[in-house]
Design brief:
This protein is mainly α. It is 67% helix and 0% strand. The chain has helices spanning 2-12, 16-29, 47-56, 58-67, 71-80, 83-105, 113-136, 143-147, 155-171, 179-186, 197-204, 209-221, 223-231, 235-240, 247-257, 264-276, 286-297, 304-310. Helix 1 packs across helix 5 and helix 4 (58-67) packs antiparallel against helix 5. InterPro entries: HATC_C_dom, RNaseH-like_sf.
């Protein structure tokens, strides 16, 4: 990865004549890369996206380095023509692509801890699939390695997947929530009242275990509650509307659903604020900034036609 970024930075740092030449290569390649981003500055790209673009343009990069006369270009060219290096870059491209997909799944509004835990569990299972896929040599989940890297699997790649799984488990070890509690919040009709669920629940929150078991048995026998879950807009909506008859279950569910699983919402708010209060708008008052921020973050959609029909126009003549 470090070598790849050095090559990219070398291309960015070339003279204007050389850069125009490379841009020519980029434009010529657009016939097969219609969605290619023509952007000189790579800082805004994630490493995964940078790798994808780098692999797509590997032939053009080699041509560019061949025409460059600097010693650094010659060194980078030797790297680019190394078969093992190309295989490793192809492998990392696939890995970063999977990680980027997970990252996008963990972002967005309305994501609860239940959603996040399920996605993390799914990715942990996928890592087992990736490892088995590498061992088999089928490369169903490593398309870039299969095509660009010509299916060359090394021991380092297998070790990397194993270490990634261990690192993944260790990183989210303190994020543990009992999976039967997660399953209960997602669908209370699939959890056994006499199982370990109630014991795990009271470890999270000091509730009456007998009440948990009793109310769970009651809610599972209520046909209207099953219908309510199927027709609910979201899990939160279902539990908010849940009758107080099941107050203990409701308290447990709302405790889990109100956990902050990520800082996405907060970061999105800061991003909106930065785009609103620019250097060109340095006289924007705090009150106006708050109003603009509230409008940009709200999910409410105004009925423009209704507002316009109720408005009164004032004419000067």
């Amino acid at each position: 990865m470090e070598k790849t970024m050095k090559i990219i930075n070398h291309i960015r740092g070339t003279s204007s004549t050389q850069h125009r030449l490379f841009r020519k290569f980029v434009l010529e390649s657009q016939a097969s890369h219609d969605d290619l981003f023509l952007h000189n500055d790579l800082r805004w790209l994630s490493k995964g996206k940078a790798l994808e673009r780098f692999v797509e343009l590997r032939a053009q990069v080699v041509d560019f380095l061949k025409q460059s006369k600097s010693k650094a270009a010659a060194d980078h060219l030797r790297v680019m023509q190394d078969t093992l290096y190309v295989c490793n870059v192809a492998f990392l491209t696939d890995i970063f692509s999977h990680l980027n997909t997970l990252n996008l799944q963990l972002q967005g509004k309305g994501k609860s801890v239940v959603d996040l835990v399920e996605k993390l569990d799914a990715f942990g299972n996928k890592l087992d699939l990736f490892h088995a896929d590498l061992l088999s040599g089928r490369l169903l989940h490593f398309n870039t390695l299969k095509t660009v890297g010509e299916g060359n699997v090394t021991d380092k790649m297998k070790t990397f997947i194993t270490q990634l799984k261990d690192n993944f488990s260790a990183r989210f070890d303190d994020f543990f929530i009992s999976r039967d509690v997660i399953g209960f919040v997602r669908d209370p009709f699939t959890i056994s009242p006499s199982g370990e669920f109630s014991t795990n629940a009271v470890k999270m929150l000091p509730l009456d275990e007998a009440a948990i078991q009793s109310q769970l048995a009651e809610i599972q026998a209520a046909g209207d509650m099953k219908a309510a879950l199927r027709g609910a807009e979201s899990l939160s909506a279902f539990w908010v509307s849940c009758p107080e008859t099941y107050d203990t279950l409701k308290t447990l569910a709302m405790y889990v659903l109100t956990m902050f699983g990520s800082t996405y919402t907060c970061e999105a708010a800061f991003s909106k604020m930065n785009s609103i209060k620019t250097h060109e708008r340095n006289r924007l008052s705090t009150e106006s900034l708050e109003d603009c921020l509230r409008i940009s973050l709200t999910a409410a959609k105004p009925d423009v036609k209704k507002l316009a029909s109720e408005g009164k126009c004032n004419f000067s003549h």
